[in-house]
Amino acid sequence: xxxxxxxxxxxxxxxxxxxxxxxxxxxxxxxxxxxxxxxxxxxxxxxxxxxxxxxxxxxxxxxxxxxxxxxxxxxxxxxxxxxxxxxxxxxxxxxxxxxxxxxxxxxxxxxxxxxxxxxxxxxxxxxxxxxxxxxxxxxxxxxxxxxxxxxxxxxxxxxxxxxxxxxxxxxxxxxxxxxxxxxxxxxxxxxxxxxxx
Length: 197
Known about the structure:
The protein is α+β, with helices and mostly antiparallel strands.
């Protein structure tokens, strides 16, 4: 099983450069080396691979954004900005826009630790490798890397005829393996056992 596929990188995209240009992300130095250089007055930042975090009061020790209307307005602004990014070169993966969709955490995460998940996640077109780089000031560029993950073509192989695959989710893997080994699942555990021994 794999939770992602692979493809070639055509270009990398550095959305933190957009946040910096908008004044939404600041650092204590002009050439930050790591998130240690993060200016705590910054309202938002993006980590690999395209995880958007609002600097919320109550979540981060020096949070500056109030949960509720202020957070929603900021997330809407960032979402609109990310969806509006456009690559100046030729189309990549059929698009010049690197971001295919922006998912709110409630759309893709669940469970008792939902509040620790990113506020939103960027889903990008194949060929655009979204990076959380902080030292980059340009929106697009390249590194020596040649391959990237994809999310529309993850795979699951099974050699058991008639194995149920309808509605298969990655969270079903652990309960299924435990069931095949004759072990009871931990409680609570996401997913469901799709086969018995």
